[in-house]
Write the structure tokens for this entry.
Amino acid sequence: MNTLDQLVYCSRSRLAPDDEATAMVDIVHVAAFLNARNGITGALTLQGGVFVQVLEGSPSALDILMLHLHFDERHEEIEVVARNRIERRAFPAWGMAAPTRGQCGVLSRLIAERSTDLTAWRGALSALLAEPA
């Protein structure tokens, strides 16, 4: 049986506001390739200068990815706010998705609270992904 974990982390963006859109495209492009190779799926967004990412995969693959993320100079103050075992992926279709449509009140609240509720984080990111472009 394959074991799956899901984690959510928040980090402070070091990007200039004018560079955010280009950086997000680059992050998603590279992540989609690398994550597919490592069996990782997830979603990423940037809200008010804070990256929020949900990652899903084997515990060891997530641990290795988190180590690599600490060396990414586009962000700092990485904090895993929630992590747990899951039965199935919430974001199976995406190597990495990046909803970029404005601010989400629910997500802003979760960020401020650093919620440990994986269900709430999944719901907020899923709602952003479901919104029409």
About this structure: Helices lie at 20-38, 59-69, 105-113, 118-130. Residues 11 and 78 are 4 Å apart (CA to CA). The chain has one domain: 4-130. Residues 20-38 form the longest helix (19 residues).
